[in-house]
Design a protein that fits this description.
about 45% helix; two-stranded parallel ribbon; seven-stranded parallel β-sheet; 12 helices; 13 strands; binds nicotinamide-adenine-dinucleotide; Rossmann fold; alpha/beta; globular
Length: about 350
């Protein structure tokens, strides 16, 4: 099996590469990214070839790799709410335009695509649990620019689905619900809004800055440990039942409000030397979303997946609980900080 991972140097890509190299000795990976920092430890493997590539500049090389693979994971995207509101066209260019080109090449060369959709496509849907084929995709007005990410992903989902019907494209769409774990983001980056929520809070603690709860922090999310997510991806690759399906990949048992999350992280962090002092002084404060992200932000109050389809078709179930996944993640960052000090 030749797997092409575009964006292999990111959070999900690096864990997918690691798992494949550890457990599937006869698979080969072509890994494309603008940076290899998160997979440098894997580069000595003879089953992984890294190609430093910017898919916006060098499409010829990317297309060549698509021609030669069995399955392609187009993981390169901007997935940061601050960029959705500050530079929406950059999000459109990479997340939609560049990925559309990859999808079209997969159609042309008859390759299988495993595409990262997102829980964000459900937007402000009011369903108790989001279901892949029943829940509506509800976004806000055009002036709320944060929806450009959700719409870019949704449009690609629709294009991929249509290619499946018209041209027989073999695809699977997976929708991660707040996957977290080691290598998520760089917590040394001090800028508010530059990271995803768990790493943002850890970064705040590291730098002794207050933790901002956007609009009160009552928003509910379901946090999913990266090893559970990667387990689903391996099952998708290996299982013909995944063909032309959409899967929510999230942990409905790990529902947690952002306020509770902040409290948990502060309390857990105080157990570690590298965070202890600041964890005692950092405060949890409320902030207005228009101040934090800008006026074109709009939030999703509750986001819980139904994972029945992944259970039934893939035999997949998430197993890592909320406290455990936070401890594993904080352990990783504490180790790095200890090594660097
Ligand atoms: N992590 C999550 O919980 C989550 C949730 C929903 C959807 N997703 C989707 O999954 C995919 C992977 O997410 P992630 O968390 O690993 O993101 P990430 O930001 O960690 O990784 C993206 C990778 O793409 C690379 N990249 C960016 N621009 C590039 C370019 N022009 N050419 C080549 N490489 C480029 C980056 O260097 C980075 O390594 C994305 O499409 C994201 O939208 C992730």
């Amino acid at each position: 099996m030749n797997i092409l991972i575009i964006g292999a140097g990111g959070f999900i890509g690096s864990h997918l590469c690691e798992e494949i190299l550890n457990s599937r000795k006869d698979w080969n990976i072509s890994a494309l990214d603008i940076s290899s920092a998160k997979i440098d430890h894997l580069l000595p493997s003879k089953n992984l070839n890294f190609y430093k590539t910017d898919i916006l500049d060098d499409y010829g090389q990317t297309e060549e790799h698509i021609k030669n693979c069995d399955v392609v994971f187009p993981l390169a995207a901007i997935a940061s709410p601050l960029v959705y509101v500050q530079d929406p066209l950059r999000v459109f260019q990479l997340d939609f335009e560049a990925n559309l080109r990859i999808v079209k090449s997969a159609v042309k060369y008859e390759k299988r695509v495993v595409f990262p959709s997102t829980s964000e496509v459900y937007g402000m849907c009011g369903d108790e649990e989001f279901e892949e084929d029943n829940s509506n995709c509800v976004t806000g007005p055009i002036c709320k620019q944060r929806w450009i990410y959700s719409c870019s992903k949704q449009m690609l989902d629709r294009v991929i689905y249509a290619y499946g019907i018209r041209d027989g494209l073999r695809y699977t769409l997976f929708r991660p619900f707040n996957w977290i774990g080691p290598r998520l983001d760089d917590i040394k980056n001090e800028n508010n809004g530059s990271s995803r929520v768990v790493t943002q809070f850890l970064s705040n603690i590291l730098h002794g800055k207050n933790i901002n709860l956007v609009d009160g922090g009552s928003q509910i999310r379901c946090f999913t440990y990266i090893s559970d997510g990667i387990d689903a991806l391996i099952k998708i690759i290996e299982n013909a039942a995944a063909d032309r399906q959409i899967f929510n990949v999230g942990n409905p048992h790990n529902q947690c409000s952002i306020r509770e999350l902040a409290q948990k992280i502060l309390s857990l962090a105080s157990e570690y030397d590298v965070f202890r002092e600041n964890a005692r002084t950092v405060k949890i404060v409320n902030t207005d979303s228009s101040e934090y992200y800008g006026k074109s932000y709009q939030d999703v109050s509750r986001r819980v997946p139904s994972v029945r389809r992944a259970e039934e078709l893939l035999g997949w179930k998430p197993v890592v609980g909320m406290d455990d996944l936070l401890i594993k993640t904080i352990n990783f960052y504490a180790e790095i900080l200890k090594k660097d000090s």
